[in-house]
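Technical annex, item 7. During the second reporting period the consortium partners agreed on a shared format for inverse folding records so that results from different sites could be compared directly. Each record opens with the tokenized structure and is followed by the designed sequence. A conforming record, contributed by the partner at site C, is shown below for reference.
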């Protein structure tokens, strides 16, 4: 088989990646796999000098955490997200500069930098073109003449980007930061936008931001991944720039997806979709029939009439999972609460105890 290109979900290394959370994954993947990394957060040299731009969860790490990436073959870093501007212009610039030492970096820039949100890169004998967008529902700080940030998604911009990429690449990929956090079921707006990108002419759509794996569909012969979930994203508890940031991920955020594509016949072809266990301290391939069935069900729901109802049920489930994590009651309480509310099917009793 030819070299493989893997797309990853949200990546944040935290303040200390000395336990090398990605080593187990690097040992499991073939040596010829290159990874497209969606890097969330920022890098800094001195936490005491940072100035937070908004009172929200803001993500930052010292540049030394990048050592955790040294066993991976990196195809590109995408900075198209709602955290690149968390600590202002100098920190965003430092983040771009440090990451660019390891691999090509794109997705965030200033409006005066023409085409910063798109790039064409060689892979496996062909050229892959990327265009990156961040939708308003993620609350980004968009690019201005004086601020590094992402760009919004609209049909006219997507069509213009596609024309540019077609002129200099063999295969066009749209990378989108969108959707509601924690939901396994994609929103109607995600589905509308994802299919619009295919209709515009993109060959592949890759989504991120929800921190939970979502469904995958083939629309008009082209793959759309609505969310790959988390790749590596540890719990976060830090005081930076005078604010205390605490983030405890729900169990649903520990499962991610890693689709692998090969370059054949002038295009990328999906070879398989790996499931990842991504708990922040250890990321590893964890394929199983049950996870494959779960992904298939999520994909089937994209065209079903019950997706809206499923999202309403899921919203209630998320609230109880958040309560369980916040109150440190653990997964048992979350599961019992869901069972009592009828949100999750009870496990069947052994045959000997059935009436």
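Designed sequence (site C submission):
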């Amino acid at each position: 088989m030819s070299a493989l290109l893997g797309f990853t979900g949200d990546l944040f290394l935290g303040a200390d990646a000395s336990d090398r959370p990605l080593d187990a994954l690097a040992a499991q993947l073939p040596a010829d796999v290159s990874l497209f990394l969606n890097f969330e957060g920022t890098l800094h040299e001195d936490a005491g000098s940072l100035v937070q731009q908004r009172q929200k969860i803001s993500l930052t790490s010292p540049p030394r955490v990048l050592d955790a990436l040294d066993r991976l073959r990196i195809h590109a870093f995408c900075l198209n997200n709602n955290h690149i501007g968390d600590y202002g212009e100098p920190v965003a610039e430092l983040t771009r500069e440090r990451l660019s030492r390891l691999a090509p970096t794109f997705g965030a820039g200033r409006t005066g930098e023409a085409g910063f949100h798109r790039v064409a890169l060689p892979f496996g004998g062909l050229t892959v073109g990327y265009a990156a967008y961040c939708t308003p529902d993620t609350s980004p700080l968009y690019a201005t003449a004086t601020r590094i940030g992402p760009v919004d998604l609209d049909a006219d911009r997507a069509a213009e980007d596609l024309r540019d990429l077609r002129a200099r690449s063999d295969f066009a990929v749209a990378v989108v930061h969108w959707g509601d956090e924690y939901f396994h079921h994609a929103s109607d707006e995600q589905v509308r936008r994802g299919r619009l990108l295919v209709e515009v002419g993109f060959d592949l759509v890759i989504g991120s931001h929800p921190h939970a794996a979502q469904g995958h569909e083939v629309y008009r012969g082209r793959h759309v991944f609505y969310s790959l979930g988390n790749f590596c994203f540890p719990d976060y508890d830090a005081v930076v720039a005078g604010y205390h940031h605490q983030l405890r991920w729900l169990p649903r955020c520990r499962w991610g997806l890693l689709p692998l594509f090969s370059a054949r016949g002038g295009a990328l072809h999906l070879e398989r979709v790996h499931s990842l266990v991504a708990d922040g301290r250890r990321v590893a391939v964890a394929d199983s029939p049950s996870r494959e069935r779960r992904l298939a069900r999520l994909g089937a729901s994209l065209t079903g009439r019950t997706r809206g109802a499923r999202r309403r049920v899921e919203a209630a489930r998320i609230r109880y999972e958040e309560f369980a994590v916040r109150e440190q009651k653990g997964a048992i309480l979350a599961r019992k609460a869901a069972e009592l509310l009828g949100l999750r099917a009870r496990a069947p009793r052994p045959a000997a105890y059935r009436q």
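Residues 4 and 262 are 5 Å apart (CA to CA). Confidence is low (pLDDT under 50) at residues 344-355. All partners now use this format for quarterly exchanges.
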